[in-house]
Known about the structure:
The complex is a heterodimer of chains A (208) and B (518).
Chain A: E1 5-14, E2 17-27, E3 31-35, H1 42-50, E4 57-62, E5 65-66, H2 72-75, E6 77-80, H3 92-96, H4 105-112, H5 128-140, E7 146-150, H6 158-174, E8 179-183, H7 186-192, E9 195-198, H8 199-202, H9 204-207
Parallel strand pairs in A: 3-8, 3-9, 6-7, 7-8
Antiparallel strand pairs in A: 1-2, 1-4, 4-5
Chain B: H1 2-30, H2 33-36, H3 42-75, H4 81-89, H5 96-106, H6 115-138, H7 143-151, H8 156-184, H9 188-193, H10 201-210, H11 215-246, H12 260-287, E1 289-290, E2 293-294, H13 297-303, H14 315-349, H15 355-363, H16 366-379, H17 390-413, H18 416-424, H19 429-458, H20 461-466, H21 474-482, H22 487-517
Helix pairs in contact in B: 1-11, 1-14, 1-16, 3-6, 3-8, 3-12, 4-12, 5-6, 5-12, 5-22, 6-8, 7-8, 8-11, 10-11, 11-16, 12-22, 13-22, 14-17, 14-19, 15-17, 16-17, 17-19, 18-19, 19-22, 21-22
Amino acid sequence: MVNGxxxxxxxxxxxxxxxxxxxxxxxxxxxxxxxxxxxxGKSTLLRCIAGVQQPDSGRITWNDTDLLAxxxxxxxxxxxxxxxxxxxxxxxxxxxxxxxxxxxxxxxLLALIRLPGYADRKPETLSGGEAQRVALxxxxxxxxxxxxxxEPFGALDTDLRRTLTTEVRELLKSTHTPAIHVTHDExxxxxxxxxxxxxxxxxxxxxx
Amino acid sequence: xxxxxxxxxxxxxxxxxxxxxxxxxxxxxxxxPESLEILLESRTWRVxxxxxxxxxxxxxxxVALALPATYALHRLRLRMRRLTLAVLTVPFVLPxxxxxxxxxxxxxxxxxxxLTAIILAHAFFNVGLVIRVxxxxxxxxxxxxxxxxxxxxxxxFNVFRRVTxxxxxxxxxxxxxxxxMFTFTSFGxxxxxxxxxxxxxxxxxxxxxxxxxxxSAAAGLALLQLVVVVVALIWSAALQRRTVMxxxxxxxxxxxxxxxxxxxxxxxxxxxxxALALPVLALTLRSFRAGNQWSLQWYxxxxxxxxxxxxxxxxxxxxxxxxRYAVLATILAVVLGVLGAMAVQLATRRGVTLEAxxxxxxxxxxxxxxxxxxxxxxxxxxxxxxxxxxxxxGQALVAAPLVxxxxxxxxxxxxxxxxxxxxxxxxxxxxxxxxxxxxxxGRATVGAAGLACAVSLGEFGATAFLARVDEPTIPLQIVRxxxxxxxxxxxxxxxxxxxxxxxxxxxxxxxxxGRTQW
Lengths: 208, 518
């Protein structure tokens, strides 16, 4: 019995090009930072885990049960992109409440991301950092069993990155949410994660 | 993304089924020896010749009238710009029959039935189309490019010839192809303004079908027309793709008109807008004139016709019929248009070029749609003649491609990752689609529905083939009245046309309000 997420022998090709091959990784109750150069397939891995992309081979399991057969909306795995991707037609509060049935938690989540009173704001009035915090709250709202962060600070300036890195770590720890944090920044990886892994080390073919 | 494939197949299937029915019916009926015989008659080639001639002349005139106005509207600072642009572009959605009649009310009797009248009416419709297509590209032209050319020693004229014109050429050619296609397949205008001695292909298809009852010959002509349109459409699509590739986003502020040429363009734009307002004005005035005085006589007459024949139907019943058909057609057109836009968008994301096939209906003329559906209703497995849904179906097939064209750019601009976000937050595929795409295209869909309704209300080409004699729509009744001699019939036609214009205006204004409040 393995606790948490297991990716076994995962392979993804797109239009004849191999993006991932024989990738194996396990994530328990922890924050894992995944490092690798851009274009190395980090995002592809996260998409497969979240269920918005299907791998060509391999398995993904949670507590030993198969996840690949479960559609994205039933996996309970959150995904945060480099861009906040807030729904432009919904207020900040309704963005956060998107994935939950009762919206009473919105106030609590807004306090957690230090944006109290922002519920009625329109997404286009937010700064980059604020928007990314809202995206994070939105992903945490349905209490996902795991959160995937795909270079969430990539579009922000250095100072803001540093602040947010600490904030996000605290947020994940206080909500007991395991996470995979993808980045190409070594310092950021070590600051946020319990464990740092390199994408190249996870794939059998690239080791041989 | 395996899951979205299933979602993609359903709309493609439904849309293809509906939109391609008339085309397939025409193909099946047209490719037969007895149908193709018509291509050997010399009369046919005279008709083809006249159709091509009027289309070419109409196109050249439309583009020439529109280009100076396009420049003034999209590059220069203009007073009352929005109003002017509205006056210039609204004619495109006006009912063809009403426009034909408006030109008859405006032009002297000596021009009735002439090529000149047809060309002017076609220009009235298509000037706005050219302004939209070319203006969209022109407004994005980076002004610094022209500045650079000027510092290299080029005169203003040479900057236009060597920098601006090459940049605009694909857009001008694309709009030319579109106008050529629309005028080549024009029907309502020619029926009202043209001379019976000089029919176009569309009129000839209608005449063969309804007067001579020679369905085979009509099918042969419809096939010929379809081939011409498909070629024009593919050409236009190729040109537009080139336009899109060349577009570079930049916002150059509108400049004040300084040079003499600039000022001429500005005057030209206002003059053109005034000229385009004239026919509708003339029509409205004419509807209130009986004998030599102001009168409501024609309105009283259409409300309670006193002709005594069974063909005289009160305006109230005609308006009710028109509205009933238009509402049904609008619902169907919006459903088909949304599904079609989704299908094209999903297909292009997959790198498949379904686009041409699905956009084909835009180029397929209303007459072909009406004639195709008529063929299905006569020769199909079930006899559907007189079926209530036949008319709304025809109108919806005319309007759906328009809805599709309006929604497609918006669907394409939606970041696909928004759908992933919705999915990872627990929304099942359909709910995620509604929460993201549905909500984001909602506003545009309201506007598109209004347009579809306006088009259905004024639709003539398809409706003429499908409507029952005892249940005419407003455009059908107008043409029927014009077919009879006498001032009374002409006066009644103008009154009905004004009623149709008023209803169309109410529909467009209401949906515009609804759209902004969405």
